[in-house]
Design a protein that fits this description.
Elements: H1 3-19, H2 29-32, E1 76-78, E2 109-111, E3 125-127, E4 175-179, H3 185-194, E5 209-214, E6 225-230, E7 235-239, E8 245-248, E9 259-266, E10 269-276, E11 283-287, E12 298-307, H4 313-330, E13 335-344, E14 353-359, H5 362-370, H6 384-394, E15 404-410, H7 425-433, E16 436-442, H8 448-461, E17 465-468, E18 495-498, H9 499-513
Parallel strand pairs: 2-3, 5-11, 12-13, 12-15, 15-16, 16-17
Antiparallel strand pairs: 1-14, 4-17, 4-18, 5-8, 6-7, 6-9, 9-10, 13-14
């Protein structure tokens, strides 16, 4: 009998068994003939019939794009009423003392200052600004001018190689350099002590500790909570980054000595060690007894804090392209990106901040960035402080994500003169505690105060500072304190590349850090610049 014929007969037999269980003796057909049998009720079905499974050689159906599990939300704005203008309005309007600031033309063509401005544009030729100031010669006007400001360069005008006017575009994208102030921690401290930056946060960085959490095989344990308790009972909660390390500056955090206890609690166990708050470098090695267990599906959080005032058009365009490249690269690494954005301007503008919440809809956020237009920002400083606070406190970073990266991009320092403003140091420390690494990017035209603040934020949170090169100016673009020692005669202690390449490099670096040696720390006990070239952990490229 074939299987096709056997199957119905087998099912009928099972049904007959279910209707009438056999008695001790079978009744004869004759005895049953005159009786009318009542129809038995079907038994309850505890395993309903499932649809058949068919295997064929046909290609599988095309998958429908999945709906993001964290869809794009409507942006949230913060606003503030008109503020008193600082000295040197770019337009020379009737505020304060009417001093206009000169535009920064670099090696191309810039715009002149405004009003009865003392401002002088730095460039070979200056167009006439609104008011009367012409931009020719050299030097800065009162209030410090910067390229573009709230006014754009005339259409079609090219602003020197690597310049950042609204219509400028250097070949190959935005050229940038990089400085790692933790790899050269001592040099950074010396530079910071020499710089004049009124209003910048004063931090005691004399004591630095790397809290390293690794498993029994020596591999880093990302996103592990670490509690630090001092002798007075004050506690501080930190979280490791992708490399298994949390960066601690005990004295800057107000921890009292002579000793503090660091306790890692993750992977189902707890490990504690004691360290001092004495000046200098140190490592607290917290080794778990078992092998780490990482989630199968890992996420990485990438957020951008972007100055969207008038001079930032090129960076906005570069960021749109960068998001596409980041999403494409991560799709091949079994890591899912979550992206977010905080736009910022200044008090009195259309908005102070505009927050786009973290989302897995990378394409949707990219489309939003494509619609961003640069505008506002009358005086030089912008409200960087508020932008950093919104990013750190309001964006929904996941504690369990492999890494949490923020890219702060701007060409102007923060306003440090606003009344009732808490500054940037609080949000900077909160980012460090949460394992959020901030990579600062200073666009061309950033003044000395901005360089100090941006470098402080990056160094304290374990990020690096990147800067837009002015026609290939190299380390001079970031002010003093950048050594010129060389490896091979032409080597300088910074790295340079395109903005999108550097950002993507940081994202990839966070992913590869999960399998790197967490005890191999650049700048530990000795600055990288002072090591022989073949012994450097971070080599400039």
């Amino acid at each position: 009998m074939s299987i096709r014929r056997l199957a119905p007969a087998f099912l009928l037999a099972l049904a007959a068994c279910a209707k009438s269980p056999p008695g001790p003796e079978a009744a004869s057909p004759a005895a049953l003939a005159p009786k009318t049998l009542a129809k038995a009720a079907p038994p309850p079905v505890d395993e309903p019939l499932a649809p058949p499974v068919v295997q064929t050689d046909a290609p599988p159906p095309v998958a429908v794009a999945a709906v993001p599990d964290e869809p794009l939300e409507a942006p949230v704005d913060t606003r503030h009423g008109p503020a008193l203008s600082a000295k040197g309005s770019m337009w020379g309007e009737a505020v304060m003392d009417k001093k206009g600031a000169g535009g920064l033309g670099l090696s191309g063509i810039g715009e002149g200052g405004g009003g009865r401005g003392e401002g002088i544009g730095l460039g070979t030729i200056g167009t006439i600004g609104r008011g009367a100031g012409t931009g020719s010669g050299a030097g800065f006007g009162s209030g410090h001018g910067r390229l573009g400001g709230s006014h754009r360069a005339p259409a079609g005008v090219r602003v020197g190689p690597g310049g950042l006017g609204a219509s400028a575009q250097s070949p190959g994208g935005v050229r940038t350099g990089e400085w790692d102030d933790n790899a050269n921690y001592r040099e950074f401290a010396r530079w910071l002590g020499k710089e004049r930056a009124p209003g910048a946060a004063t931090l005691d960085l004399s004591s630095r500790r790397f809290l390293v959490v690794r498993d029994s095989a020596g591999k880093p344990v990302p996103s592990c909570p670490v509690e630090v308790r001092d002798s007075a009972g004050k506690t501080l909660s930190l979280r490791t980054t992708a490399n298994g390390r949390a960066l601690l500056f005990p004295r800057a955090e107000g921890l009292k000595g002579p000793d503090v206890v660091a306790t890692a609690r993750c992977q189902g166990e707890s490990v504690a060690k004691t360290t001092t708050v004495a000046a200098g470098d140190g490592v607290v090695d917290l080794v778990l007894s078992g092998a780490r267990v990482l989630p199968e599906a890992q996420t990485i959080d990438v957020a951008f804090v972007l100055d969207t005032t008038g001079s930032m058009s090129e960076e906005i365009n570069a960021l749109r392209d960068t998001l596409e490249k980041v999403a494409g690269a991560l799709s091949t690494m079994n890591v899912r990106p979550r992206v977010g954005l905080v736009e910022y301007r200044d008090r009195g503008d259309e908005y102070v901040t505009r927050m786009h919440q973290m989302t897995t809809d990378v394409t949707g956020l990219q489309a939003r960035i494509a619609t961003i237009s640069a505008g506002g920002g009358g005086d030089t400083p912008e409200h960087v402080n508020e932008a950093l606070r919104v990013a750190v406190r309001n964006l929904r970073f996941r504690p369990e994500s492999l890494a949490r990266l923020v890219f702060l991009i701007g060409d102007a320092p923060p306003h440090l003169d606003y009344a009732q403003d808490e500054g940037y140091a609080g949000a900077m420390k909160e980012a460090s505690h949460a394992g959020v690494q901030v990579y600062s990017i200073a666009a061309s035209g950033m003044d000395n105060l901005g360089q100090v603040v941006f470098r402080q934020i990056a160094q304290y949170t374990g990020g690096t500072h990147m800067f837009v090169l002015r026609g290939g100016a190299g380390p001079e673009s970031v002010g003093g304190g950048d050594p010129r020692s060389s490896c091979g005669g032409t080597h300088t202690d910074y790295t340079s590349g395109n903005l999108d390449a550097l950002i993507l490099g940081k994202v990839r670096g966070a992913i590869t850090a999960r399998d790197a040696d967490p005890m191999r720390i650049a700048g530990l006990h000795q600055d990288e610049k002072d090591r022989p070239c073949d012994q450097r952990i971070v080599m400039a490229q």
